[in-house]
Amino acid sequence: MKLKEYEFNPILSANPKNEWEDLCVLNPAVIYDDVNEEFVMLYRAAGKEDLMHHIYLGLAKSKDGYNFKRMSDEPNLAPTENSEDAGCVEDPRLVKIGDWYYLTYASRPYAPGRYWLDEPKPWFNPPKEGPNFLKWNNSVTYLAITQDFKTYKKLGRITDSREDDRDVFIFPEAINGNYYRFSRPLYNYKDYGLDAPGILIAKSGDLMEWRNPVIFAKSEEPWEDMKIGGSCPPLKTDRGWLFIYHGVNSKDKLYRVGAMLLDLNEPTKILHRTKSPILEPKKEEGSMYSGCVFPTGNVIKDGILYVYYGINDKYVGLATANLNEFLDELEKE
């Protein structure tokens, strides 16, 4: 059971014309706009700047899901200077609820630096008495909303700033009166009863306050024994919620991809789960993280499942599957 990688990958590469995206583009959020009948992509991007490595989101659109056109030479969403998300806006996930698009994105108070190189990190030395996320430059996940991908309202953080929680997104609708959120704390995971970083689920009535998260899924297979995390917002099908996630192996440190099918009315219940990866990386010289496939966007359109992912922290890739055939295979596991 495998996703089929698009033969003309990557579908988006760095743009040498724009300084903010001339190094890498990766980890895109993608959603289908039924009104304008087009795929909308928000992609993570960074340029060949100095040691700081600020990260932005760019906007691209497509009519067929394969060929995307950049919509501007400027970032679509950028860090806010001297704010809590001043370092970066990255790894977006998108859902639509009602007439609004809800964007979750990871950020840091200072730019992360060139994390793929062994060199000192450039962020400001904070006070010893300051908050942990400032001292450690932790990832915190924030929520923003938009209706047109032109103007955004940043609403603030939806994760605990002490946990370095970046694999965070919400379901695209309320279920039995509650919204649901997936998260993956890198720190404090043992406080939740996990032996390694795993996926938590929490409920909310208003999308901002998420109390009492509980274990949703742990690492089970050797290819995901180091940690697992959510990848793409769940997609509603007539058989259940289709959920794409990622796992990391402790020996080779490679990022691979798996899938689950969840109960429509009780999303904490896993009906089926893949035992083997459905997408695996290829190592590449000159990449920021060689050996990584990292999905962050998925769409179902005309019976086809589209999965969009970062390739080695350098490019945007696409893999597809016939939805019914994919679900048939998933149900066998």
Features:
single chain, 333 residues, Tachylectin-2, Chain A, 21 strands
- At CATH's second level, what is the architecture? 5 Propeller
Number of domains: 1
Supply the helix-strand structural class. mainly beta
Distance between the termini: 10 Å
Q: What percent strand?
A: 35-45%
- Characterize the biggest β-sheet: 5 strands, antiparallel
General form: globular
Order of helices and strands: EEEEEEEHEEEEEEEEEEEEEEH
What is the CATH topology assignment? Tachylectin-2, Chain A
Q: Could you name the CATH homologous superfamily?
A: Glycosyl hydrolase domain, family 43
Q: Name the CATH class.
A: Mainly Beta
Summarize the structure in short:
It contains two helices and 21 strands. The chain is mainly beta and 333 residues long.
How is this structure best described in words?
- The chain has helices spanning 132-136, 323-332, and strands at 4-5, 24-33, 38-46, 55-62, 69-70, 90-97, 100-107, 140-146, 153-157, 169-170, 179-183, 199-204, 211-217, 227-230, 235-237, 240-248, 255-262, 270-273, 293-301, 304-311, 315-322.
- By secondary structure, the protein is mainly beta.
- The chain is built from two helices and 21 strands.
- The chain has a single domain (4-332), classed as Tachylectin-2, Chain A (5 Propeller).
- The strands form five sheets. Strands 14, 15, 16, 17 and 18 form a five-stranded antiparallel sheet that branches. Strands 1-21-20-19 form a four-stranded antiparallel sheet.
